[in-house]
Amino acid sequence: MAVQLEHMLADLGFPATLAEVVTARERAGQALLGWSRARFETERLNVERLRNDGALEDALQAARRMLRLCQDAGADAYAGASYDLARAHFQLGKLLKLAEAAEPASRELTTARQLFQMLADAGNVNASRMAAVADAENGDCLTYLRRLQEAVDAYEAALAQAGPNTNNATFATNNMQLGLVRQRQGRYAEAAKLYDTARRTFEALGEPEGTAQAWRQLGLARKMNREIEAALHACQQALYLYEQQRNRSGIAETLGELGHLHQLLNQPEPAALSYRRMAELYRELGDGHSEEASRNKLANVLIQLRRHDEARQELYRASECNLPDSPTARSWAIRRGLRDLGQAVQNPNVADQARRQAIQKYLAYRQAGGENTNPGTRLCAQVGHAIQAGDANALAAKLDQIAASPNIPSTGRLLIEKLQAILAGSRDPELAADPELHYQYAAEIQLLLEYLASH
Fold it and tell me: Chain-centre distance of CA 23, in angstroms?
């Protein structure tokens, strides 16, 4: 009875009553002898409560203990024990996924899927549904691990399990996820079809948030497939829906896409309007880093329009978006914009001086123990470790794969070129001196070369 009450109260917003029922359920569970469905439900709910309370490590330990109890008791411990064993693997897999342990999560979800499928083949309808859910969850893990074709297989299996006439949010979400994988594979036309299927499903369900997200992803796929006008239309639809929902983050992100699309169509005036509105939204949201990037983009368009005074004002407003001692307060995006502006008004030294100052400030920050979670920074660290471990060739091959992705920006490709040269044996300090290199990457390469010289 406590288990049933806990299910009913979980989402009703009565925390004191729920806590009383949880205590009652735990007390009753301690009196249970042996392994049974009631004992399984008690253990499972304990895992969920720990997860919901933010105690992820404790939840993982409890989930592992529950799985061992299921395995020790065996699939014939009680009617439905084999189904509960599959659920135990599934729950542990989802927790590992939440903990960003994608490899072990994938293993648990694969096992769960196999067990559910065996029961589904024997006629268990619930197991058939759970097999599809496990496929979709595993697809997320495989995507994270960049095992893209395996992820495609998992999502397609989940969609096939749903049947041809399915019309629910899970079906739409799985199409979205499969579209993301196809997009990463560079198969943009296929990705666009999947996003459009998801969009139509979300529309039929009356879910504007999902519809807006699908329109936005459709715009990205169209852009990558060089269908710029179609991409513009899709992003305009997404913007309209986000505005109806008053979703300011969604509005700001979509405005950034619209600004870029207008630039691709050589429409600088509407591009400037999009970037200006985006910058103001990020200012209202208190997101200094995004406001900084937005104002830099706006300044670049204003330079193109030869409105140099407005551009300079935006660049200096961008430089004030973050604390002066922050390593990103005067990012190289701003430095590059100042250089372009300096060239436009015959003052080419402004950016070079600012770049040197930014590099020195960032070096001081890193040498004092400051951290940076940027993917490029992590790549630099991986190169140093790989060279020390004698795994340079393996990492070089991995970098080749990363560089081949169409989603890597030009700044990332330039960094990869420098790191590939270091993996090949170069220790030339000029690698960090390229003026086109992001100022943080220039500093990281300098630190990497100093690390290799001292080891």
Answer: 37
The 10s digit of each residue's pLDDT in 237-254 is 999 999 999 999 999 999
Q: Tell me the CA distances in angstroms from 265 to 226, 299, 340, 441, 445, one per residue in order.
A: 11, 18, 21, 31, 36
Is domain 187-244 given the CATH code 1.10.10 in the classification? no
Q: Which among 81, 184, 92 has a CA at the least distance from the CA of 138? A: 92
| 32-166: in CATH 1.25.40.10 | yes
* Amino acid 112: pLDDT: 95
Which range among 153-157, 242-246, 387-391 shows the weakest confidence by mean pLDDT? 387-391
Q: Where are the domains of the chain?
A: 32-166, 187-244, 247-367, 417-455
Window from 69-78, 225-234, 343-352 with minimum mean pLDDT: 343-352
Lowest mean pLDDT among 38-47, 332-341, 408-417: 332-341
Nearest to 201 by CA among 189, 188, 214, 192: 214
- What is the pLDDT averaged over residues 412-435? 87
Task: Tell me how far apart the alpha carbons of residues 339 and 358 are, in angstroms, rounded to a whole number.
Answer: 14
Tokens coding 413: 């490709």
Give the pLDDT confidence of 53-108 residue by residue, as tens digits: 889 999 999 999 999 999 999 888 888 999 999 999 999 999 999 998 999 999 99
Taking the C-alpha atoms of residue 198 and residue 217, their distance in angstroms, rounded to an integer, is: 10
Residue 264 burial (CB < 10 Å; 0-12/13-18/19+)? middle
Average pLDDT over residues 10-21: 77
What is the pLDDT, as a whole number, of residue 67?
93
Domains 32-166 and 247-367 share a fold: yes
Does 141 score more than 60 pLDDT? yes
Neighbour tally for 429: CB within 10 Å = 11
- Sign (positive or negative) of CA dihedral 430, 403, 334, 291: negative
**Which residues lie closer than 8 Å to 158 by C-beta, 6 or more apart?**
132, 133, 135, 136, 139, 174
- Candidate CATH numbers 1.25.40.10, 1.20.120.430, 2.60.15.10, 1.20.1440.20; the one for domain 247-367: 1.25.40.10
Q: Report the C-alpha gap between 21 and 258 in whole angstroms.
A: 51
Residue 324's Cβ-count burial label (10 Å; 0-12, 13-18, 19+) is: exposed
Which residues in 125-206 belong to E strands, given as ranges? Answer: none
Is the C-alpha dihedral spanning 289, 290, 291, 296 positive or negative? positive
Is-contact 254 216, C-beta < 8 A? Answer: yes
Name which of 140, 129, 182 is nearest 197 in CA terms: 182
